């Protein structure tokens, strides 16, 4: 199945950084800093967290896998809820959108693993002495790795609902609630499902990373595959690492077959193009459900109930309790007040909030860091940036030609494509110990040899996107190239590379974003008592986290977010714009 | 036979629709339009694209709020989506994720009609419109004609007082469109439709004469009612009937009558000559029409309705070509006829190089914008002219869409004439390199 995302968030806003970024960045980081301050104080009286023992018995793994999976599901549910509310509000109200969209844009550039420490402390404070706090923190970390691109995709869809369908809904007098469930949500479904899939595949990485975490004096372990792995690393048990890898493989496989194939196949009916799709995604499970009389009978009552729920005549706006109606009411309220003057007040308010947040961030950071550190951190950021650039370049040189060659052979592509998507979902941090053992054994330089770990899990995005691009490359262009004997380098330069370029950019954006995030776990790794560290912003944040040094964490996150945002704006967006403008195969 | 035209359902008077532009000058889509819709009649809004007729339809539907004038439904002012109207869309606008049955029922569910009644009415509408057997199909499984039948059933099922149709047949092929038209007309004449009146937008003159009791002919820029024509031909109407042909000819004549291109509206500032909107017509079409006219079949002169029929073009296709030829001094259009001018004949008979030379000459003489850019490029210090500069010169006098279209037109014509060229990377006009 080839199904390419058309909703990459990098396209979402205009290419140029605008004044809203200036407000959004300090707002986001500032709020994180506030969370740290608050959480820090709350957590002070806490002396110990309930320790849940994790054993290395492989027979415990099914249970651990189940726990990890449940966390993942809980996070996905939270992400969906967030998507439906946040994106809807942003799309329905111009003024809300002005703030919410830049904030979302910054949020997705903030390294999730960077602020996991605050959220852990914060949630532990929220549920003192209970493991629930740690659970919430882990779920929250997974949530933050999943929600942003889903919200972006949904927002994009809401803004591009075809005008005729919109008019039909208005003309037939749909209420806000009815419009949301019969028009807007279905229209957004294919893009949303695709983004859910991407989110999930990114999410496993964070499940593994967030189940066993040390913040200052607190060590939190939640039963799951991630903590099993942490224990294996502690005990230097390669066999246990192997079991964890196997368990993860099975879990991802089950997830794909039982959840996502059916979802994707089902979401296909929401595609708006009225021409029958050439390739219809299929799922044996969905087919089973749809064709078996027993299952249909079981689900029919739910179906009817849902149908009734969707068509409820919840009033638009007013005292509506329905999510969509309520949001529309909020959005309407924000927009109802007359234009110019209120806009000015609204801008001013946002500017003040931004200033205040920025100021409190600086105040907090400077309480524990002197300004010389800032220079160091910027330098470390440069080191990590260099790694990301070199790694993406290397991955490009390797996977673009290979992806094209695979994509041009449909039979082969059919087999490789699912494998590549699978590898992208597989949390690379499970394999880190193997690399560490090798580095230690051969006494390699960690500054160089830890780097590949950053792209270990994310390079596959480049591969499967390029495969998709080559598969989708029009047959007549291929025939034309063959007919005119275009070969060798000219074939690559004039025919194939421009054809797959838009797909490549999609993959490379995801890969580079993932690499920044991975740097926090990849630049500082352990194997029992052995500790390997590469110089970079990632290891800086990791060390500050372990030491519970909040000002340094905030500084590290702020700088990394800045690097990511600039990298996206100055490199990927222009490339995207170029691809859109010049290389679209209409 | 339907002579009960007494009750007024809708009354629009002095309706104006304008969009504020940053330059301060309003861009007027509709200006001072009056329209009365009575019980038992089919009214057609006929005009070129951009004449605001679709906007007027949406004003009646309550989807668009006019910036001026009054809209009254049974004497009461309309605010928000109008009750008792249902719309049929050019693009069908079916929900792709709902089956035929669900699509038709959607409007009833939205209204909260009790399930049993909704089902009965859905079944009735589906039967009436000839969709029985297709209830469980999804729109993507249907042909264009069947999809539009779903569009009709969905509109009729809510028992609207007025059926609004926005070019409902223009996305269909000729045969399918004709079948649907006659089916609808038959149901209307047999009074089997649960509606009182039909308001339809079209740019097909024959369709308007075939279906309507009254036709409002719109002029463009801004949209105004140029003429109101009563069609008193008995149904079923025959396209070959002399009375029918005469009426079609008459409307063609009215729509091609020589008139100032931009009506002198409230605009205080007269635009400079080069800031007049141009419609982009491909040079292939221009050359094609000139060659057709010069061919022995026409001997340089043709009746537009006849030509449209022979070429299977509708007015939206044919008029812009004819008018561009007229603007370029290659043909004359008047009273529904078109004939070649001397340069036009010369063009048709020449080879490619001579054609280009002739076209370049006429471009400079008759298209002030082309002459303007050409003049700028000829200034000694100028290497190239950024398109943003030209756009800025056009923007105060037209909408952004028209400015884009105008730039596209002048770029393509100038390229054909090899007068000057345009670089998409740098977004500048320049002379072609001499080497």
UniProtKB/TrEMBL annotation, chain A:
<keyword id="KW-0472">Membrane</keyword>
<feature type="transmembrane region" description="Helical">
    <location>
        <begin position="420"/>
        <end position="442"/>
    </location>
</feature>
<keyword id="KW-0812">Transmembrane</keyword>
<dbReference type="InterPro" id="IPR000515">
    <property type="entry name" value="MetI-like"/>
</dbReference>
<feature type="transmembrane region" description="Helical">
    <location>
        <begin position="385"/>
        <end position="408"/>
    </location>
</feature>
<dbReference type="GO" id="GO:0005886">
    <property type="term" value="C:plasma membrane"/>
</dbReference>
<feature type="transmembrane region" description="Helical">
    <location>
        <begin position="64"/>
        <end position="87"/>
    </location>
</feature>
<feature type="transmembrane region" description="Helical">
    <location>
        <begin position="345"/>
        <end position="365"/>
    </location>
</feature>
<dbReference type="Pfam" id="PF00528">
    <property type="entry name" value="BPD_transp_1"/>
</dbReference>
<feature type="transmembrane region" description="Helical">
    <location>
        <begin position="240"/>
        <end position="260"/>
    </location>
</feature>
<feature type="transmembrane region" description="Helical">
    <location>
        <begin position="448"/>
        <end position="474"/>
    </location>
</feature>
<feature type="domain" description="ABC transmembrane type-1">
    <location>
        <begin position="385"/>
        <end position="571"/>
    </location>
</feature>
<feature type="transmembrane region" description="Helical">
    <location>
        <begin position="20"/>
        <end position="44"/>
    </location>
</feature>
<dbReference type="GO" id="GO:0055085">
    <property type="term" value="P:transmembrane transport"/>
</dbReference>
<feature type="transmembrane region" description="Helical">
    <location>
        <begin position="99"/>
        <end position="126"/>
    </location>
</feature>
<comment type="similarity">
    <text>Belongs to the binding-protein-dependent transport system permease family.</text>
</comment>
<feature type="transmembrane region" description="Helical">
    <location>
        <begin position="132"/>
        <end position="155"/>
    </location>
</feature>
<feature type="transmembrane region" description="Helical">
    <location>
        <begin position="553"/>
        <end position="572"/>
    </location>
</feature>
<feature type="transmembrane region" description="Helical">
    <location>
        <begin position="202"/>
        <end position="220"/>
    </location>
</feature>
<dbReference type="InterPro" id="IPR035906">
    <property type="entry name" value="MetI-like_sf"/>
</dbReference>
<keyword id="KW-0813">Transport</keyword>
<protein>
    <submittedName>
        <fullName>Sulfonate ABC transporter permease</fullName>
    </submittedName>
</protein>
Automatic annotation (TrEMBL), chain B:
<dbReference type="InterPro" id="IPR003439">
    <property type="entry name" value="ABC_transporter-like_ATP-bd"/>
</dbReference>
<dbReference type="InterPro" id="IPR050166">
    <property type="entry name" value="ABC_transporter_ATP-bind"/>
</dbReference>
<keyword id="KW-0547">Nucleotide-binding</keyword>
<protein>
    <submittedName>
        <fullName>Nitrate ABC transporter ATP-binding protein</fullName>
    </submittedName>
</protein>
<dbReference type="InterPro" id="IPR027417">
    <property type="entry name" value="P-loop_NTPase"/>
</dbReference>
<dbReference type="InterPro" id="IPR017871">
    <property type="entry name" value="ABC_transporter-like_CS"/>
</dbReference>
<dbReference type="InterPro" id="IPR003593">
    <property type="entry name" value="AAA+_ATPase"/>
</dbReference>
<dbReference type="InterPro" id="IPR018632">
    <property type="entry name" value="AAA-associated_dom_C"/>
</dbReference>
<dbReference type="GO" id="GO:0005524">
    <property type="term" value="F:ATP binding"/>
</dbReference>
<comment type="similarity">
    <text>Belongs to the ABC transporter superfamily.</text>
</comment>
<feature type="domain" description="ABC transporter">
    <location>
        <begin position="10"/>
        <end position="245"/>
    </location>
</feature>
<dbReference type="Pfam" id="PF00005">
    <property type="entry name" value="ABC_tran"/>
</dbReference>
<dbReference type="Pfam" id="PF09821">
    <property type="entry name" value="AAA_assoc_C"/>
</dbReference>
<dbReference type="GO" id="GO:0016887">
    <property type="term" value="F:ATP hydrolysis activity"/>
</dbReference>
<keyword id="KW-0067">ATP-binding</keyword>
<keyword id="KW-0813">Transport</keyword>
